[in-house]
Amino acid sequence: MSHHIEIVRTRFEEVCDEAALGDVDRRLLWRRQFLNRLAFEGIESEIGPAICGLGEGQGT
Predict the structure, then answer these.
(1) What is the per-residue pLDDT across 14-49, written as a single tens digit (0 to 9) for each?
(2) Which domain holds residue 34?
(3) Direct distance between the N- and C-terminal alpha carbons of the chain, in angstroms, rounded to an integer
């Protein structure tokens, strides 16, 4: 799971650029379609380093 999170995290902007998504669409997708908080309920301690800071920067 941590690997998947890191791939989305590091390539999100690149993929959005390829898809020619505007700022509004990027903000709508970030942490919603790919990284919804409920998907990680109960496993936060196991994947903590991978999700640390996801609410900052990109799309917020």
Answers:
(1) 999 999 999 999 998 887 766 677 777 788 787 777
(2) 2-51
(3) 23
Whether the pTM exceeds 0.70: the reply is no
The answer to whether position 12 is within a domain reads yes
Number of H helices, E strands in the chain: 3, 0
Domain membership of residue 20 (yes or no) is: yes
At position 43, the amino acid (one-letter code) is I
Are 4 and 35 contacting, i.e. CB atoms less than 8 angstroms apart?
no
In a domain, 47, yes or no: yes
Split into its structural domains, the chain has a count of 1
Lookup: tokens for 10: 């590091």
DSSP run (H or E) holding 47? helix 44-51
**Residue 60 lies inside a defined structural domain of this protein:** no
Q: Which helix (H) or strand (E) holds 5?
A: helix 2-18
